[in-house]
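[Discussion] Sanity-checking designs against the backbone

I'm trying to build intuition for which residues belong where. Below is a C-alpha cell string of 120 positions. I'd appreciate it if someone posts a full sequence so I can compare it with mine line by line.
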C-alpha cells in the first residue's frame, strides 16, 4: 500500500483546521487575515469553535493551507470537507465532527464513577 496522498476531487466546500503547538488544542481558521496569526498559533485568525470557521472553495482553501503550513506554531494543518448549516459548518466525516464538536458520549466528571462502573 502506498503512502502517497490521494488527489482530492470532491467539490465540497472546505474549512481549515490544525492543532495548536503549545497545547495541542484543535483550532479552526476564522477567515480573518492569516498574517494576524500570533506566534502562539492562535490570535484572531483562529478559534476553538468550529462554528467560527467559514467554508471556502477548494482553490481558496488550498491557498490558505499553503500559508498555514508555514507557521511553526501550528501542527498538521489540513482541509476538512463540510456542509453549511444554520449552526455553522458540519464536517462530512465523523472523525472531523468529533474533533470539532467533542466526544460522542458523555464523559463522567467524577473519576471514581469510572471505577465503580468497571466493578459492576
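Best answer:
Here's mine. Compare freely.
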Amino acid at each position: 500500500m502506498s503512502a502517497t496522498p490521494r488527489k482530492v476531487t470532491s467539490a465540497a466546500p472546505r474549512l481549515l483546521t490544525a492543532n495548536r503547538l503549545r497545547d495541542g488544542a484543535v483550532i479552526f481558521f476564522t477567515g480573518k487575515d492569516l498574517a494576524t496569526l500570533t506566534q502562539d498559533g492562535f490570535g484572531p485568525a483562529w478559534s476553538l469553535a468550529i462554528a467560527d470557521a467559514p467554508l471556502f472553495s477548494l482553490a481558496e482553501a488550498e491557498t490558505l493551507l499553503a500559508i498555514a503550513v508555514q507557521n511553526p506554531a501550528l501542527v498538521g494543518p489540513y482541509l476538512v470537507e463540510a456542509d453549511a448549516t444554520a449552526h455553522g459548518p458540519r464536517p462530512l466525516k465523523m472523525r472531523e465532527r468529533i474533533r470539532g464538536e467533542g466526544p460522542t458520549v458523555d464523559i463522567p466528571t467524577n473519576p471514581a464513577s469510572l471505577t465503580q462502573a468497571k466493578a459492576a
